[in-house]
TrEMBL record, chain A:
Protein name: Cytochrome c-type biogenesis protein CcmF
GO MF term (any one): heme transmembrane transporter activity
Transmembrane portions of the chain: 6-26, 38-62, 96-113, 125-142, 175-195, 207-229, 249-265, 274-292, 312-331, 352-374, 394-413, 425-443, 449-469, 497-518, 626-645
Pfam families: CcmF_C, Cytochrom_C_asm
Keywords attached to this entry: Cell inner membrane, Cell membrane, Cytochrome c-type biogenesis, Membrane, Transmembrane, Transmembrane helix
Membrane topology note: Multi-pass membrane protein
Primary location: membrane
From TrEMBL, chain B:
Pfam families in the record: CcmH
Family the UniProt entry places it in: Belongs to the CcmH/CycL/Ccl2/NrfF family.
CcmH/CycL/Ccl2/NrfF N-terminal domain ranges (all copies): 10-151
Name of protein: Cytochrome c-type biogenesis protein
Its biological purpose: Possible subunit of a heme lyase.
Signal sequence residues: 1-20
Domain of life: Bacteria
Keyword presence, Transmembrane helix: yes
Length: 669, 155
């Protein structure tokens, strides 16, 4: 009954989404204001209906209603409650419903908070948003219905994929989708602006918060995924350049470009066309990511061709959305005029360079991800593109980015003086080079990668410090004045500083873990001790026990440094007994530290001749220096985005003219 | 009781798949081993999804890891080992595609975007420069004459 309610709500939502797109778009075209104002209640109703539908599906999972096919395939009555709930989106159909829920949520938020948006722009933006929702709801209803029943209902379910039964991965998809779908709002605003043929500072002020929120959510989502891979997959890798990861990484890069170019539209009324294009591109890449992950094209191009129903539908959505918006862009964009004038050395140019580097690096990821698919589809030849390619082809752009960032961030708007910028940053450059040299001298290896990366990380972080010092007038004003100036700095500036600093922190973490990980793979007997870098590890033994829906073997290790115990870790090997094919998963034992993680993994029991257990176990032990800095930096980046989101100019929501006057009075960022 | 039997049975099963490099695969010579690890990171586990044999749990990955170590111990250079594996399993095994005509676009996409985009951006920035936009065209000869005449009349 509940499932049918959910299904019914979804069908109603489909109808509402059609009405909510056709009426406002046509009304705006004809200038009928009563049709246009329909957009607001339609967006709210759509959200309410999808909410109801999602709640119904959640209810089916929570109560383990095994007459619903999806629950049978992805849940089990013994599963802990949190994973019953996470199971709702831990599968194809449910994740699509979550996608649409977020989509409707963002539309409803614009409807609720966008009182100051001009009626036409609002009607068109909500109309486009509703159109996207319509496409995805149709996809669900016709090819991936989450409410399908199963008769007769089995006694119990097949359980969720064990890898997904983990806090990191349970909350990875919601954040990721929040990001993808947040970009849909920027896309809808871009399409609306193209239809209207008008882009101004007020438009940019409406788009940027969505792009910021989406980007921050994507950052958290990607960070969670990476963190999960680090502790779950059993050898402490944090990024694998897997197509699924790349699918979320491309929109992230494009969103960065969008964020930065939208600032130029808002403050300087330049780069309008380009910003619109970035908004279209960022969401197109989100759709592409959804296609890559959801169509099954990754497992094999042939699998896609054999069961093409879903894939073809998403491909169609993709073609309509991307092709349609790009056609609209080609038709309308030339009529958008940019007024701003700026010198070659200026903040504007710096932000253009940012966009160039983002697009180039995004191009590398795109080419590397799509090439094997395209190659196989066209010629049947199979090629692989993996981590070694991306490490080599992607990194140079990040190096350029890190070099350019502090310079561009310090350059004033409109016209800058290269000499002046350098004079404010020379000490940061010197200190960064010093840090690189120090690392070069201290490290035992001969690889130049670590010293260079360390110098870059220090340069980015110190560049932020130099900028803050400059803003506070450190040295040229009394201390009280310094504080006062910092306290008065807009939140958007604090957001920028925190996010840029976070990038430095992440670069540092990535460089350290890549260059200085210590690894030890061995067979150990209970009671045995072995050295691991500067540490001494003692293996105490293995116990076996039973979890809620799994059995596990748990190793016990003590770690000493200079004779003092520093850590006590318990790596596990789990087997989820309720899944169809029980396979072991590893739960690494990790002692988190500020400057290093101790990372232990329990391998297999060793078997002697004739299959007799010898009592010894395979053990892998790692020291991962500065591992937490990778995700710490990601958190800082997301925090920076959120800080910027709370900036006064978004909170006040003053009418256009007053806001512009305020912007004109405020000192240039 | 039944639980305990089940437990024992499933745990016995667990000895099957092995995560990544196993202790018995590790070479005694650390220099050779580290070379083997670096080579392993370049080679794809053919039955996995985009995983290097160095990270993979699959049986085939283990066979390939052992093969790589065998060649390294036999005195092959890194390039020779990779060629040897490619000869047997095809280009598909390479996680870093070779720079060939067919693969050129994969390698050049980033630099091309940067170069073309950089050129376009440079032209755009130059066109927006205040000098170009703000400075009016120089006076023509006729205009100058008129201006001089006006100034003379005024004085």
């Amino acid at each position: 009954m509940i499932a049918e309610l959910g299904h019914f709500a979804l069908i109603l939502a489909f109808a509402v989404s059609i009405a909510g797109s056709v009426a406002p778009l046509y009304g705006a075209h004809r200038g009928w204001s009563d049709w246009m104002t329909l957009a607001t209640p339609a967006a709210t109703a759509l959200f309410a209906l999808v909410c109801l539908s999602f709640a119904a599906l959640t209810w089916s999972f929570v109560t383990s209603d095994f007459s619903v096919r999806l629950v049978v395939a992805n849940s089990h009555s013994l599963k802990p409650m949190i994973y019953k709930i996470a199971g709702v989106w831990g599968n194809h159909e449910g994740s699509l419903l979550l996608w649409v829920l977020m989509l409707a949520l963002f539309g409803a938020m614009v409807a609720a908070f966008g009182r100051n948006i001009p009626t036409g722009l609002k009607a068109r933006a909500l109309g486009v948003q509703s159109l996207i929702a319509c496409g995805f709801i149709a996809f669900m209803l016709f090819t991936s219905n989450p409410f399908e029943r199963l008769f007769p209902a089995p006694f119990d379910g097949a359980d969720l994929n064990p890898l997904l039964q983990d806090p990191g991965l349970a909350f990875h998809p919601p954040f990721l989708y929040l990001g993808y779908v947040g970009l849909s709002m920027a896309f809808s605003f871009a399409a609306a602006a193209l239809i209207e043929g008008r882009v101004d500072a007020a438009w940019a002020r409406w788009v940027r918060p969505w792009a910021l929120a989406a980007w921050a959510a994507l950052t958290v989502g990607i960070g969670l995924g990476s963190w999960w891979a680090y502790y779950e997959l059993g050898w402490g890798g944090f990024w694998f350049w897997d197509p699924v990861e790349n699918a979320s990484f491309m929109p992230w890069l494009a969103a960065i470009a969008l964020l930065h170019s939208a600032i130029v539209v808002e403050k300087r009324s330049s780069l309008k066309n380009w910003t619109i294009l970035m908004a279209i591109l960022a969401f197109s890449l989100s759709l592409l990511g959804t296609f890559i992950v959801r169509s099954g094209v990754l497992d094999s191009v042939h699998a896609f061709a054999v069961d093409p129903e879903r894939g073809v539908f998403i491909l169609l959505l993709l073609v309509v959305a991307i092709g349609g918006s790009l056609a609209l862009y080609a038709w309308r964009a030339p009529s958008l005029k940019s007024e701003g004038v700026f010198a070659p050395v200026s903040r504007e140019s710096g932000l253009i360079l940012n966009n160039l580097l983002m697009m180039s690096s995004c191009g590398v990821v795109f080419a590397g991800t799509m090439a094997p698919l395209v190659r196989e589809a066209l010629t049947g030849a199979k090629i692989s593109v993996g981590a070694p390619f991306f490490d080599l082809a992607f990194t140079p752009f990040m190096v350029l980015l890190a070099i350019a960032l502090p310079l561009g961030a310090m350059t004033p708007w409109k016209r800058g003086d290269a000499g002046k910028v350098l004079s404010k940053l020379w000490w940061a450059a010197a200190a960064a080079l010093g840090a690189g040299a120090l690392v070069w001298g201290v490290q035992t290896g001969t690889s130049p990668a670590a010293p260079i990366a360390m110098a870059l990380a220090a340069w980015v972080a110190l560049g932020v410090a130099a900028e803050i010092a400059e803003r506070a007038k450190v040295g040229s004003a009394p201390l009280a004045e310094n504080w006062r100036r910092l306290a008065r700095a807009p939140r958007a500036d604090w957001g920028k500083w925190v996010a840029h600093f976070g990038l430095g922190v992440t670069i540092w973490g990535v460089a350290a873990i890549t260059a200085w990980t210590v690894e030890d793979i061995r067979v150990a007997r209970p009671g045995e001790s072995f050295a691991l870098g500067a540490y001494e590890v003692t293996f105490d033994g293995v116990t076996r026990a039973q979890g809620p829906n799994y059995v596990y073997e748990r190793g016990e290790f003590h770690v000493y440094r200079d004779g003092v115990q520093v850590a006590h870790v318990y790596p596990e090997k789990r087997i989820y007994t309720e899944t169809r094919t029980p396979t072991p998963t590893t739960e690494a034992g990790i002692d988190n530290g500020f400057t290093r993680d101790l990372y232990l993994v329990l391998g297999d029991p060793q078997v002697g001749t004739g299959g007799v257990p010898t009592g010894a176990w395979a053990v892998r032990a790692y020291v991962k220096p500065f591992a937490n800095w990778i995700w710490g930096g990601a958190i800082l980046m997301a925090l920076g985005g959120c800080l910027s989101l709370t900036d006064r100019r978004y909170r006040v929501g003053a009418p256009t003219r007053a806001a512009q006057a305020h912007a004109a009075m405020a000192p240039a960022e | 009781m039944i639980r305990a039997v089940l437990l024992a049975a499933t745990l016995a099963l667990s000895a099957g798949p092995a995560p990544a490099v196993q202790p018995d695969e590790v070479l005694a010579d650390p220099a050779l081993e580290s070379r083997a690890r670096e080579i392993s990171k370049e080679l794809r586990c053919l039955v996995c999804r985009n995983e290097a044999i160095d990270d993979s749990n699959a049986e085939l990955a283990r066979i390939l890891r052992l093969l790589v170590r065998e060649r390294v111990v036999a005195g092959d250079s890194d390039g020779e080992v990779i060629d040897y594996v490619v000869d047997r399993y095809g280009e598909y095994v390479l996680l870093r595609p070779r720079f060939t005509l067919g693969n050129a676009l994969i390698w050049l996409s980033g630099p091309l975007i940067l170069a073309l985009g950089g050129f376009a951006a440079w032209r755009y920035v130059r066109a927006r420069a205040p000098q170009a936009a703000a400075q009016p065209a120089p006076l023509t000869e006729a205009e100058r004459r008129d201006l001089d005449a006006l100034l003379r009349d005024g004085s």
